[in-house]
TrEMBL record:
Domain of life according to the entry: Bacteria
GO molecular function, one term: ATP hydrolysis activity
Any coiled-coil regions, as ranges: none
Taxon lineage: Bacteria, Bacillati, Actinomycetota, Actinomycetes, Streptosporangiales
Segments forming domain Rv3660c-like CheY-like N-terminal: 7-114
One Pfam family named in its UniProt record: CBP_BcsQ
Gene3D superfamilies assigned: P-loop containing nucleotide triphosphate hydrolases (3.40.50.300)
GO terms under cellular component: cytoplasmic side of plasma membrane; cytosol
Gene Ontology biological process terms, A to Z: negative regulation of cell division
Name of the protein: Septum formation initiator
Length: 349
């Protein structure tokens, strides 16, 4: 795989470029002399030119191409934009002021968007509705169907969705290791850091003191996942803070698991009131009880509810540390149908 190319003999500038590239999880090739850049001019996914070698490079007559940047540590130099035109760069970036933009450029060059992940949020209409089990089951079903899937546990008080999968001892990062991230994140780096099982990658909570997810961290994780995944399942708490609003805003659909009794519907109505300002496509998933599914959906003002079947032995399996039994089980068939209904299984290779 070809790497971005830095063309500079300014050691201070090169140190900056190497540090910024490292923040993006990228290694650079370096040409300290303009003439040595020619072999990689066409193949490098991104070329970053220091102003110190811009005139020398222009003299070699490089052919026009995309993804060329001129980088300077002296923005007040009046010759900067002339050099930008001479080398065929698309823009000038000033360091250190525009480091974040350069991180994004390096990350995009190293990991161009290969997918367009569908984001689905899942929450319970009331506590104990089973939303976390549904989120985990959907993610497992999708990954077993060959979809590259990220399961995000956004509920710091839920005990960790890795427990539902029977993978609480899996080695890898949890939210406390991720909360400081912001800006563009490489999905490849994220996947390598997190517990991954085949096509399923999991971002769960630890069992320590709960903490808040910053909006910027949620945005960075979901943007990376949308570039690198087919499907992102986010298990939400029943309250909405800045990070949860960020997830809801990116959701193609938000599933609300409603227990079909009077208390369940009343609680779900309050949950929906909190969700509606942040997301457009809300769907009821009904757990059968005393009320008919069409009555539940009409009471909540949602389209006809999808009916999530009861499954014998599910609680006992989870207590034994076994992932939800899927396959040909009622829950497995329901997840397959629901994923198809959401369009998550379409247009993926």
């Amino acid at each position: 795989m070809y790497r971005p190319l830095a063309i500079t003999d300014d050691q201070d500038l090169l140190d900056d470029l190497l540090r910024v590239a490292a923040a993006a999880g990228v290694e650079l090739d370096v040409a300290h002399v303009a003439s040595r850049a020619r072999p990689q001019w066409r193949t490098a996914p991104l070329i970053v030119i220091g102003t110190d070698l811009a005139d020398d490079l222009a003299a070699t007559g490089p052919p026009p191409r995309q993804n060329v940047l001129l980088v300077t540590r002296t923005p007040e130099d009046p010759a900067t934009w002339r050099r930008c035109v001479a080398v065929g760069a698309q823009t000038v970036l000033q360091l250190p002021a525009e480091e974040r933009l350069l991180v994004a450029e390096f990350a995009e060059a190293a990991e161009p968007s290969t997918r367009a992940g569908t984001v689905v949020c899942v929450t319970g209409g009331r506590g104990g509705a089973g939303a976390t089990v549904l989120a985990a089951s959907l993610a497992l079903s999708a990954s077993r169907a060959g979809l590259r899937t990220l399961l995000v546990d956004a509920d710091p008080l839920g005990g960790g969705i890795d427990v539902v999968l029977g993978e609480e001892d899996a080695i890898g990062a949890r939210w406390p290791d991720i909360v400081g991230r912001e800006g563009r994140v490489s999905y490849g780096a994220l996947q390598r850091a997190l517990p991954t099982f085949g096509e399923l990658t999991v971002l769960s909570w630890h069992r320590g003191e709960p903490m808040r997810i910053p909006r910027e961290a949620m945005r960075a994780v979901l943007d990376a996942a949308r570039r690198g995944c087919d499907l992102v399942i986010v298990d939400l708490p029943r309250h909405v803070d800045e990070a949860i609003a960020e997830a809801l805003a990116r959701a193609t659909a938000t599933l609300v698991l409603v227990h079909a009794d009077v208390r369940g519907v009343l609680a779900a109505a309050q949950t929906l009131a909190a969700l509606r300002p942040h997301t457009a496509d809300l769907k009821a998933v009904v757990r059968p009880a005393t009320l008919a599914p069409d009555v539940v959906a009409a009471s909540l003002g949602l389209p006809g509810g999808l009916i999530c079947p009861q499954q014998r032995g599910l609680t006992q399996a989870l207590d034994r540390g076994v992932a939800p039994p899927l396959g040909r089980t009622p829950l497995g068939r329901f997840c397959t149908t629901l994923l198809d209904h959401l369009g998550a299984t379409h247009d993926h290779t």
